[in-house]
Amino acid sequence: MLSTRWEPWTELDRLSREMDRLFHRGGNGQSSLAGAGSVPALNVWEDDANLYAEAELPGFAFDDLNIYVLGNQLTIQGERRPPQHEGGSWHRQERGYGKFSRMIELPTEINADGVSAELNHGILHITLPKTEAVKPRRIEVKST
What we know:
The protein is mainly beta. It has a four-stranded antiparallel β-sheet, with no helix packed on it. The chain has a three-stranded antiparallel β-sheet with strand order 3-4-5, with no helix packed on it. It is elongated. It contains one helix and seven strands, in the order H-E-E-E-E-E-E-E. The relative contact order is 0.21. Helices cover 12% and strands 32% of the residues. The chain has a domain at 37-82 and 97-134: Immunoglobulin-like, CATH 2.60.40.
């Protein structure tokens, strides 16, 4: 079972996204700003060897995403393009579109050369291997 660590910056980020969603989507059923509501939800967890990040990105193609690792910061950038429909008129347009950029600070150093990512059924899975210096080591106990 994964334990959950309380992180105030994560909570503030979540509150900010909710405020954006509330104020940019008014009650008229139409999205008023490109990009409103398009910041992906993100989960991060770890085991002894890796950190893992998962982002909800339905409707994105891998070519629409850029992933950067610099030091202990992970940045995910992308763009959801507005739907193109010939003719007709909108009745509701609630799905957000536009560019987003999400940067989080990782809790440990990682080996940036070993980072891998997959986009599967709208979920982006990123595997971030930890550096050898931060991996737990078993210390052999000798008897005298």
